[in-house]
Amino acid sequence: MDKKNNKNVIVTGGAGFIGSHLCESLVKNGFNVLCIDNFSSGDESYITHLLQLPNFQLINHDLTNEINLNEYREAKKFDIEFLGVSQIYHLACPTSPGDYDKFAMSTLFANSHATKNVLDIAVEYNSKVLFSSSSVVYGSPNNEMTFVKEEDLGIVDNLNEKACYNEGKRFSESICYYYSKYKGVDVKIARLFSIYGPRMKIKNGRLIADLLNSAMDNKPLTLDCRKEDIKSYCYINDLIEALYLIMENGSFGPYNIGNPSPVKMIEVLKTIRDITLSDFKCTFTEKKHSIKPLPDLSRVKKEFGWFPLTPIEKGFKETIAFTKANRNNLNISSINYKEGVDEEMQEEETNKSSNNLFKSIFGN
To answer: Is 178 within a domain?
Structure first.
């Protein structure tokens, strides 16, 4: 199977914030994009404009359960049974801190069952895989202005409310490693640092989202951090370019993807106020927020010549303009996981296949 000339690509979580932008880019570049999403954290409105195009198809499926692509007419439109799949971008996973306590098990299953099932697809079709990991695998450094390299090891608390995501990403990376080593899957890992842009949810428990929400409503806000706390933000368009470069030319990695330019929270606040012309009151508790590491980009700069180019002012302007025009969709809580079904029922449903999680990794 000639992967170089095969234009069939899968994007898991393709209806999400990052996934929808990636789908758009791939479609524009002539790929046949099969989006797999169960809308647990994505939104169909993000990809409605793509559904009219001949080289985009959508499968509504929860990847924590196994999938046989040959059973779906959407896959048949791209002759996947015969042509296969050249690339898989695995993005599917809830990412909003505000929902971790409510959907902890769903997040764990997305980082275990779903990743394993995606890698099994790669084994079947000899596909390249790019796994979207996170900077959370590095934990919280002791000092601010800490730049982390990919070989740095982090300390992560596996017994707190964020462990389902933080440890989940580390676990997913381990699955990718073993599938690469023992099953020969061509896997690449990208560790993402604080991505923002149009379609990001504005009620997701993140500082930047809280600021945007208050600016739109001109309502007071209390941020549980200090004015001088350091953050960094990478615009979505820069990220998409990096993901494409890694998929096409990267090794296993991992690769840090983010913006290494530090910005203080008080500066972020001022920028958002200036753009929105809002004078909403913002109070800082001056409580030290968890320190986030900054990305050392030496590896991606050396291998691909990549560096984020979008100034934060330009990125915020585009994000705010989109957000103003789409408040109804973006105000929705980022998780609508099987609306009306509680976490216990979701866990029970997913557990139907949990005993088989690693059964096929090394055989019966």
So the answer is: yes
